[in-house]
Design brief:
Chain lengths: 227, 227
């Protein structure tokens, strides 16, 4: 029987690629998504489509309310920045940063893994394009895994929990090439921070720009719909 | 101006004492509670009463859904054990353990602390009475703090986040004596795993037994209501 893994699945390009990689490595994958007060709830529809396309039998959506704390353009009433220069996107901690988001999501993944008795968690964080997010760095992920192994029954009983970040050192073009090679249909995914209710991407937010630049660098055409 | 701290407040004896200690140490405390599918939602009323009694101006309640994963007598349809022997309470990982609960709650506290620019989090975990819970051990708390300092803007900017566990090495009797000395009204708190809707404790679950034994050992009478 294949080992079980929990894959964090947002419905975006990175997490869809991460799911494809986890399956290619032989894991029996369960997927975990969040309804976290994001402006763009259509991304959950993308997550469901991606999970179905990969034949994931166990896809759970957990409600969490990050709006209780405010503080990010993705959950609060702050404008999503558009058409920023690449240097601006790369520098500093962006307004789209949600406080402790990866820590909260990984914590739920840890609970899910414990219930499933899964020893592996996959998360599509990336330290190249998202260098401004403290919780996308390899040293953060290593510290989370160390904590997780002290937090749970599995750790106490001597099993080791691993946190896999297969995209962490890849450029967006490399991620896309890898996903295409694994058969990911990127037309099912949604990366935009500010899409229409029908799931059409804006083409101008940081996330759309990184994605479009990545497809261009990979010499491929993005099958997603843009306004 | 006093330094701000986030205190995890369940409405039980331990977290009320922790809040009293944090205030006595001079912190301006915000409180954080969770509606997490617990059977005993009356504990949130206790949390609100405790917060009001201590003059906490900012008390937030965050909805999280741990029932999505099942697995514990506190959130799933599993009977809460009653009248267990002390040795049984002390040994192994109990059925009332909720997978990754402290990790999830501390992660939300981390988000709240980041928004408040608070550098201190207080949690009333205890490694004496709850030796079976992996996420109540000092080495777990230290690992969480190490992770937290890599997860956030504060850590990147060189500020240090501290996780305080003032009860971790105290017996229940010592916790009660400390709280009484600090003016905690334990009649406001609720520790029972299986209370009535009116907030009357059962007196027979592990938590009630630990509490009643603690008051007896401290030579004090528990002002809480029991069935």
């Amino acid at each position: 029987m294949a080992a079980r893994a929990v894959v964090l699945l947002s419905g975006g390009l990175d997490s869809a690629t991460t799911l494809a990689i986890a399956q290619a490595e032989g894991f029996d994958c369960a997927a975990l998504s969040f309804r976290y007060g994001q402006r763009h709830a259509v991304e959950l529809q993308s997550a469901a489509r991606v999970a179905a396309a990969f034949g994931v039998g166990d896809h759970r959506v957990v409600d969490i309310d990050l709006r209780a704390f405010g503080g990010s353009a993705l959950t609060a009433d702050i404008a999503v920045p558009k058409d920023r220069a690449d240097a601006e996107i790369a520098g500093g901690i962006p307004i789209t940063y949600v406080p402790a988001r990866n820590t909260i999501m990984l914590s739920f993944a840890l609970a899910f893994a414990e219930v499933l008795e899964a020893g592996d968690i996959f998360i599509g964080v990336n330290a190249v394009d998202y260098s401004g997010y403290p919780d996308c760095r390899p040293e953060y992920i290593a510290a989370f895994a160390a904590m997780a192994n002290l937090a749970t029954k599995a750790g106490v009983e001597g099993r080791t929990l691993r946190v896999h970040t297969p995209l962490i050192a890849l450029t967006k073009a490399e991620i896309i090439r890898r996903g295409v090679a694994l058969g990911v249909d990127y037309g099912l995914t949604l990366s935009c921070y500010d899409p229409t209710a029908a799931g059409i991407a804006c083409g101008h937010c940081d996330s759309c720009r990184l994605r479009l630049n990545g497809f261009a660098a990979a010499g491929l055409v993005d099958p997603a719909r843009y306004a």
